[in-house]
Design a protein that fits this description.
It comes from Paenimyroides marinum. The protein is of the alpha+beta class and 114 residues long. Helices cover 60% and strands 17% of the residues. Strands 1-3-2 form a three-stranded antiparallel beta sheet. The longest helix is centred in the C-terminal third of the chain and has 25 residues, at 82-106.
Length: 114
Amino acid sequence: MKKQQQLYKGSLNTIIMKLLEQNGKMYGYEITQKVKEITAGEMNITEGALYPALHKMEAEGFLDVEMDRVDGRIRKYYKLTENGVKETASRMEELENFIRNMQTIVSPNLKPSF
């Protein structure tokens, strides 16, 4: 496992929520492929990590689930609830603060761009 995978692991819920905010609704495999595409293969989310995260966020009231029949099979789509939208905004703010602080620590002479 790549060392950076550990860094990503702590951000998995935030990554999922941001993707759902941008795309409306997505199914599990679609989420894993979108992350792989966006990061040019640098980040791979396994089903073993994804589905427990999705189920936990659903139980916390951040996600709604919609069932849809696609090619004769039932597909489960996830989308943000109203609370999920608020939580995503909060997490993005926390993440931006974290990145800004890390930039300050790692490169104190560089001013953050946001």
